[in-house]
Amino acid sequence: MAETLQQQGAAPVVNSRREERKIIFASSLGTVFEWYDFFLYGALAAVISKQFFAGVNDTTAFIFALMAFAAGFLVRPFGALVFGRLGDMIGRKYTFLVTIVLMGLSTFAVGLLPTYASIGIAAPIILVVLRMLQGLALGGEYGGAATYVAEHAPPGKRGFHTGFIQSTATLGLLLSLLVVLGSRYISGDQFEVWGWRLPFLLSIVLLAISTWIRMSMHESPAFVKMKAQGKASKAPIRESFGSWANLKVVLTALFSINAGQAVTFYTAQFYVLFFMTQMLKMDPAQANTLLIISVVIGAPFFVFFGWLSDRVGRKPILMLGLLLATVLYFPLFKALSHYANPQIDAASRQAPIVVIADPQGCTFQFDPVGKARFDSPCDKVKTFLVKQGLPYSSASATGGEVVVSIGEQRINGFDEAAMRAAIEQAGYPAKADPSSVNQPMVVLLIVAMILIATMTYGPLAAVMVELFPTRIRYTSMSLPYHIGNGWFGGFLPTVSFALVVYTGDIFYGLWYPVLITGVSLVVGLFCLKETRDVDIDKV
User: Rounded distance, CA 488 to CA 254, Å?
Assistant: First the structure.
């Protein structure tokens, strides 16, 4: 009846509080499941590198696994264009019903995929294809869910209501981490053999639940009203990006908030996990557990900062989050190193490792085809240090001989036995001692990073909806969001880890998010307008 009245051009129906809760729950739950599917790969990147990229060295395999992880982000803007156009032309409801089916089936297929040992190079190729299908699906999902909830929200509550959609990414990550931990428990020492498949196979159940829920949802009132008035866009892509007036808003949205927000989110909930397990050599189960605790503590703040933006405005909260990220990332990660692996932190301070060599004799430790040979003494030294997860710095020297300085000891050339002895004497641990991890402090530091992310992400959906008119909203908001999150954010683990490998400095990868948040802060301060009081029913 409500939809019929709206289709006839009557005044918009005011939803009851019960109906509002149903809309938020139904939209959010489906989006949680979709983020779960997407983030599983990130939670299992280390295992996937061994299963699907076994034909290259360990360092290259992990970089390749992160590149495959990034492939899903690479295609998200294209999914935004395809599904954004459909969402503006045929409706919000049916479009993100299609996206969740595509995501669920792609994830389920990963659980059935043979490994590199079984079918060779076809395995990583198919994996990347499935990952790209996931990215296309997610490219259409977020814009639909955020738009749908915002267009149902009463005035003055858009930030609060869309804050629940903003929390779904974190809840999806939390669900993926919990399922991975459960799968580790069920499969035991067989987790890396077959247990890793269980979280992917579970997605078929989540797909059935979310599809059933979304089938019962109604179209958004703003879209129904627009269709009834005959004002729907016939070419949303051209209207969104062919007009300089709207394109200028798209570019502002991308560079002022989406790029910066993306790196805060992926730093706090992905890169921090890679940092703890790959650079600090923490036990994966312990690192996952501490991240889960931190996510549980931090997740409600997405809704809180969405609610707060209804009171004080969107822009002040967004800009403060970007400022804190720019200023605090280096101190936070250095503190994390100190509390998560105090032995390696103390050893690197007291006996720093320096590789002194002619730069011409050293190459980047990345072998994309598994054929390169790192035969120079410098290459052999750096390959050894990278495999051991040891932080080092480089110094230039003339001549062909490489010298490795470990504290006061100096080792000429590549002498693995001598380096192992010096490293052990200097107190560098092979792995972080679980009993020496200061767990409360690690959780506190991760929560601090998550709070920064919640400040930039909590009000984001409301801002993006408010920046664009109804007729092209789905398309216009989806593209800058997914370029920001798909490209700037999605490539963060890959780029940052590669920078660490290249320099040997475990903190060097942080320059990537810090530079992006700094640029977004400046652009946002001068170009982003306040949108809290905008009328979003304008066509």
Answer: 10
